[in-house]
Amino acid sequence: MKGKANTQKVKAFFKKNIYYIVMVVCILAIAAMITVAVVLGGKSSVETPDTTIPGDVTEDPGTVTPPDDSGDTPVVTDPEPIVFTLPVSGGTMIKDYAMDSLVWSSTLKQYRVHSGIDFAGAEGAMAVAAYEGVVSDVSYDALNGNVVTIDHGDGLVTVYGSLDTPVVSEGQTVAAGESLGAISTSATNEMSDGSHLHFEVKLNNEIVSPYDYLTIGDK
Ligand SMILES: [Zn+2]
To answer: Is 92-212 a domain of CATH 2.70.70.10?
Structure first.
């Protein structure tokens, strides 16, 4: 009987307080809805995608000027080695170049250095330019006779002594193989050697070996 009494008490309690209960339930429901709304809303705002693209600083590649090095840097190539034409066509060497040793001078009757190569040839043979250049000097002196000097540029000069009357003049541009004058005995310091060309090579005003430029010999 006691249980039935309790049940009735509970029923009575609900019956008496039904409005409060409904109200509390409604309040709880509203509170729950607000909570859900807040949570979802917060979540929503967090997940809102950022429309600004970070690092969007792409430069227009069209405005970039590539380095222009064409024509600024000279192309460095090894120069072609200079090879002389034999300065007396068909000539033969009668006295060798000898700056490091002494050779007998039949004219001066003594051993001397020889600053060039002497070439003999047929009667009236012409001395010719060993390489293209500009005639820089035409002169005469008793020792070396008629002398033609050709400037080839870059300090390279060839000297042609013991010539007959030169057939070129100062300032004239000559090609390799071009006639300069007939070989002769005009160089009195070598006159007993007969008609010949005394051929010298200078680099920056210093006597150098003609063999540096001639394909004959191996000195
Ligand atoms: Zn000589």
So the answer is: yes
